[in-house]
Design a protein that fits this description.
The complex is a heterodimer of chains A (116) and B (116). Chain A contains no helices and eleven strands. In chain A, a hairpin with a 4-residue loop joins strand 7 and strand 8. Classes of the chains: A mainly beta (116), B mainly beta (116). At the A-B interface, strand 4, strand 5, strand 9 and strand 10 of A face strand 4, strand 5, strand 9 and strand 10 of B.
Chain lengths: 116, 116
């Protein structure tokens, strides 16, 4: 049973436009959410995160939105640049329980292509 | 540079052979993880170590063993490799931040393993 779902395997966007990557989760115990970016032949790198007490977090061109009632989060990239072309993974964890080792559960990823 | 170092970067094994994937981090992190990435499957947790001296199974532990040698090093062993273990393996580490900090991982660059 997939607890973190990224239903779009790929997305193409023109340079300068907005990229919106979506993620849904089923486990109501998740309280911390992250986005990772991965280039070919490299390890994933942390991009941005959000805790369940917030509904929005911004970092430069990147904004993550969380809708807890819908169990949905999205990553907005504005404006999109060719260097943003990568695979983006959504991840979730139960970070505030006070127990456990903060295992991240990942989605399958969305490949973003930004066209010059 | 500080980070997570994985060796080797590439390996080809014959079915039934054994090998150990090495991982070391120099950030003094408590928790370490092994993930595998397969096409269309995202990142799946194999084993993790919440702290030195402890290890636990993740989502897909069958066919693997791990050793948390010390705080820096966490190795993954394949005792009898099978073609189904052909994958890219990522090691990661994390330091728990109890505040509003980042619960994300720092990943290594991966080991690409092919079992023939």
């Amino acid at each position: 049973d997939q607890q973190v779902k990224q239903n779009s395997p790929s997305l193409s966007v023109q340079e300068g436009r907005i990229s919106i990557l979506n993620c849904d989760y089923t486990n109501s115990m998740f309280d911390y959410f992250l986005w990772y970016k991965k280039y070919p032949a490299e390890g994933p790198t942390f991009l941005i995160s959000i805790s369940s007490i917030k509904d929005k977090n911004e970092d430069g061109r990147f904004t993550v939105f969380l809708n807890k009632s819908a169990k949905h989060l999205s990553l907005h990239i504005v404006p999109s640049q060719p260097g943003d072309s990568a695979v983006y993974f959504c991840a979730a964890t139960n970070a505030y329980s006070g127990a456990g080792s903060y295992q991240l559960t990942f989605g399958k990823g969305t490949k973003l292509s930004v066209i010059p | 540079n500080a980070g997570v170092t994985q060796t080797p970067k590439f390996q080809v094994l014959k079915t039934g052979q054994s090998m150990t994937l090495q991982c070391a981090q120099d950030m003094n992190h408590n928790s370490m993880y092994w993930y595998r990435q397969d096409p269309g499957m995202g990142l799946r947790l194999i084993y993790y170590s919440a702290s030195e001296g402890t290890t636990d199974k993740g989502e897909v532990p069958n066919g693997y063993n791990v050793s948390r040698l010390n705080k820096r090093e966490f190795s993954l062993r394949l005792e009898s490799a099978a073609p189904s273990q052909t994958s890219v393996y990522f090691c990661a580490s994390m330091e728990r931040d109890r505040g509003e900090g980042n619960y994300g991982y720092t990943f290594g660059s991966g080991t690409r393993l092919t079992v023939v």
